[in-house]
Design goal:
The complex is a heterodimer. Chain A is an alpha/beta fold. In chain A, 38% of the residues lie in helices and 19% in strands. Chain A has a 7-stranded mixed β-sheet with strand order 3-2-4-5-7-6-12, with helices on both faces. In chain A, strands 9-11-10-13-14-15 form a 6-stranded mixed β-sheet, sandwiched between helices. Chain A has a two-stranded antiparallel ribbon with strand order 1-8. In chain A, helix 1 packs across helix 2 and helix 1 runs parallel beside helix 7. The longest helix of chain A is centred in the middle third of the chain and has 33 residues. The termini of chain A are far apart. In chain A, 50% of the residues are buried. Chain B is α+β, with helices and mostly antiparallel strands. Chain B is 11% helix and 17% strand. Chain B contains 2 helices and 4 strands. Chain B has a two-stranded antiparallel sheet. In chain B, strand 2 and strand 3 form a beta hairpin. Chain B is elongated. The mean pLDDT of chain B is 92. Classes of the chains: A alpha/beta, B alpha+beta. The interface between A and B is medium-sized, with 23 and 15 residues.
């Protein structure tokens, strides 16, 4: 039976990962994900988890060790944030190309410069197109659930791709919440041991990470692209199974009071929770406001989003990252791209909010909403609340 | 010269471009990379084997009489044997 606990979310994420019985953890703690690998180190050191914990000298080494261990058939976990992720960048695209189901918790943090340790989504946006699956948690419960789901999705025979579980730095990592923590028996039932497609072993020699010359590179890339696109089927299956077993529902695009809404807001990560309160307040004031919250960032749930936006006349896309020199912020650019082929598309407002840990408050969302409900946007995107 | 070695379609690519059987480089013929090939003048060759030792492709072999030849299926025409051959028995010629 699951147990109701009150715990810091980073610690709960570590507890959830431990329930998945990883064979190897290689990580270099960096704010704000620090407590995840630290707590896992404690769990291993205290003998609660039979696992090789590698306290490596850098993030580049952390992910490299994960590649080797995953290649040897191990269940592998790592965690990082911001500059740490950038330091391991060289290895990041190699993991999906080698079809290794590494699970990484990304405690989302702004990237330098200026140097900043607080939350936004600029770190995940640097790695969004490298064929990793990416989930976004809105709260502690979703973080715990997604950490366990992640192994099942990544290691599925039709997937074998790495996966990011995104949890907002500080807003989630350092917040104490009440959560349902599944029991070891439940997780064992949900998550079978990993069965690798192939593993490095002297008795059965295989080569991994091979050279792809121009005569095969295209085919190799296309093969990974197809697997990522088709992984959505597995993600939906795993979420269905989770719902049956634990009663908590997950969908690529979650909706909140969206059915009869005149204006919809789209968010990712912990902002969804804040935005829900704003929607409630706006409803009290008589606005027909609704919310869409993206749980699945990669592969991008284009069909689900189109369905959720059917009939929508006015859409506000909230981004927590700036894409310098681009026509819009990352989420909005993708939403607009998805909507291009639709005959009936909404007016789209793009607000960038909460960069580098700037507070995102209920009244901010209400202000954004009221402005967008009244008039079309003047610019492709705005940085909300910027002084000057 | 170049043997068909890769899968025809993306559907047939091994996951992660893994090679599931060892020794695959033997079937990958690199001779097609070559612009020049080495020619031995056996009247000058003293059978020292320096060319054999230095060949980075390990494609030079000793024949029954103790002279050396390059396997042109693999020789990339790098010219290292020509450079190292101190009795000047090897010449590089256009292939």
């Amino acid at each position: 039976m699951s147990e109701r606990i009150g715990m810091e979310i980073a610690l709960a994420a570590a507890e959830a990962v431990a329930l998945c019985r990883p064979d190897v953890i290689a990580a270099y703690p960096i704010t704000p994900n620090t407590h995840i690998p630290e707590h896992l180190a404690e769990i291993v050191a205290e003998g609660h988890l039979d696992c090789e914990y590698l306290p490596v000298e850098s993030e580049h080494s952390a992910l490299s060790a994960c590649v080797g261990a995953s290649g040897a058939g191990a269940r592998v976990f790592t965690a990082s944030s911001s500059q740490g992720l950038l330091y391991m960048y060289e290895i990041v695209p190699v993991v999906p190309a080698m079809r290794l189901p590494v699970v990484m918790c990304l405690g989302n943090r702004a990237i330098s410069g200026p140097i900043n340790i607080w939350n936004d989504h600029s770190d995940i946006m640097t790695v969004r197109d490298l064929a990793w699956i990416a989930l976004f948690a809105a709260n502690g419960q979703e973080t715990v659930d997604m950490c366990i789901q992640a192994f099942k999705i990544a290691e599925h025979a039709d997937v074998n791709l790495p996966i990011f579980v995104n949890l907002d730095g500080f807003q989630l990592t350092h917040v104490v919440e009440a959560m349902m923590m599944p029991s070891q028996e439940e997780v064992d039932k949900f998550l079978p041991p990993r069965k690798p497609y192939a593993a490095l072993h002297p008795d059965n020699v295989v080569s991994m990470g091979t050279l792809g010359l121009p005569d095969i590179y295209n085919e190799a890339k296309k093969a990974v692209d197809e697997v990522l696109i088709n992984s959505k089927k597995v993600i939906l299956e795993v979420w269905k199974e989770w719902e049956t077993m634990f009663g908590r529902k997950y969908e690529p695009v979650m909706s909140y009071k969206a059915n009869d809404a005149d204006v919809l807001m789209l968010t990712m990560g912990s902002m969804g929770e804040t935005a829900q309160v704003a929607i409630d307040e706006l409803r009290k004031e008589g606005f027909k406001a609704g919310l869409l919250d993206l749980k699945l960032w990669r592969p991008f749930p284009a069909d689900e989003l189109k369905k959720a936006l059917k009939g929508c006349k006015n859409l506000i896309v909230i981004d927590r990252a700036l894409m310098h020199g681009a026509p819009a912020a990352p989420l909005c650019a993708e939403v607009k791209s998805v909507l291009y082929d639709e005959a009936d598309r909404p007016v789209v407002t793009n607000e960038i909010i909460g960069l580098g840990g700037r507070d995102v408050r209920v009244e901010d969302f209400m202000k954004i909403f009221k402005k967008a409900a009244k008039a079309k946007p003047e610019r492709a995107y705005e940085i909300y609340g910027v002084r000057g | 010269m170049t043997e068909k070695k890769w899968p025809e379609t993306w559907q047939n690519v091994n996951p992660g471009l893994m090679i599931l059987k060892p020794g695959s480089s033997r079937s990958y013929l690199t001779g097609g990379w070559r612009a020049q090939k080495p020619i031995w003048d056996n009247t000058k060759c003293i059978k020292c084997g320096v060319c054999y030792l230095f060949c980075p492709e390990a494609c030079i072999t000793e024949d029954a009489e103790g002279f050396f030849v390059a396997d042109l299926n693999y020789c990339k025409g790098c010219g290292i044997c020509y450079h190292e051959c101190w009795p000047r028995a090897i010449k590089m010629v256009e292939d």
